[in-house]
Sequence to fold (551 residues):
Amino acid sequence: MVAQESITQTEEIDLLVELTKDINKIGIPENISMCLRSSPIVPKGELELSSIQKSPIGFHLTYQQFYNGIPIENAILKAHFNKFGELFHKQAHLSDSRPRNSLFKGANILTNTKNGLIYANKKRTQNGTEIRSKSGEILYRNSGKLYLYDLNSRDTQANVKVFLVNPVNSAGVSYGPPFVDNADANSSYLSKELSWKKINLSLESDSFVLQNNLFRFSELSDPIQKTPKSKNDSFFFERSNPNFEFVNCYFHLSNYANYIQKLQFFNLLDTLVIDPRIEGDNSFFDINKRELQFGIGNVDDAEDGEVVIHEYAHSLSTKASPNTTSGVERLAMEEGNADYLTKSYSRSFTGSVNSYKVFSWDGHNEFWPGFNINSQKVYPNDLTASSNNNREIWSTPLMKIWEKIGKEKTDRLILSHLFFQMPNTKMPEMAKIILKLDTQFYDAEYSNIIWKAFFEQGILPEIPVVMPINIDNNPIFKNTYGFAFKQAPLEIIFPFPTEFSASIFCTNGAKVAEFKSNSGQMLIHSTLPKGLYILQLNYGKIINKKIIIAR
Fold:
């Protein structure tokens, strides 16, 4: 049995642990470390700090739960502090069960099964990760690869000729003659879509090398091919040349990493090994080995910048929240986030061209259908057991938000929410976190837009809120959406100093709160249980003015 959000407010502080001497290395505020204790023994088991992440929103601390020194699979606590060191969100996915079997030789983990919490052996194999019972039964197997579908050297700048982000987008067309793969053959139509760009790389001896401190190529799988080098500062290969995939892949990875640094998400960056040419028509990110590999079957995947960024997005996600990619909805959001980030990147080059087709060059053709980001599917009615079927339910509202508030603001919200991912998280939970991040970054300015996008996909409920029109001395209500999810207090503001009172009633008529103000302004903090309430105002000659509010 796993308890979700089951800890009390008092336990919330008791569960946080004192940071080690490493806290000074990331500049974490002193008031965080002062309120924490080291490795506490709490009612739900032992907790140990497993990671500290820093993002533009603040600091994200993750704790692994143990039982008698044995880690419990997927049992973690996350505590999120803003940049001032204030705890503003916590997520608990802790086990309140005791083992159903005894400890055996080789057992190194506790895992939840249909029969309860049991000791098991977890190990890495050549094919990924396996968890086995005492009898050798495989309880869980994960390749550690997130598929496309079911360095220290002198830096310098060089010129590369690449697709931006693929030939059909830049040409403003869909896949089809004359814009077809044609077994990698050159064509004048495709060559016209190549553009010169500058990017940082390395200079070794007298040669320019496609490598930097984040990305390097290696021969990980067949076919074996050496990384191209150049004696001058230009890399140009026609797409019929196998070296083209190296250049195109390297540019888009480096270009996107530069963008991540611009947004100050430095903790998301990691050193990756890349093979842009492997057999087969699929690509993947290997979580355990930190490798990106791109297939050359049909349309070469590394020719399509959308495929490149999608797979790179998996690296960002697992760097922000390691060991959390379990659960159908969690995996659907993993793919949906990557789809969103790649279309956000792609549309920054070519606007509305193929704006809702994900992998518009590699897919949406005779080889495979690709994915879309304007789905009519709704939550939870259209959920299936397939994360690939469900990914569009999540990516579609993200793209709707992008179209309303813009690329950088939406990207900042989505990249930030990667730090909040947990095993088996559900879409409504993560949608609420994005609303909370809007409060932290933008003072809840876009709550209405965000809420509407998720409501249209069925992920969040419709909240009936009556917004009065400000005529004469009528009040204005602000942060009704933030109030509903405990993100911000409800504000009542009159245009002139006004004496008034506010009463809150349950729908059964029972009064639960009352407030008074002489200034014409009032803040009502969201301490009520979840539900619908009636807010009644009395002011001047107006008696019993009522609106419905939600919590």
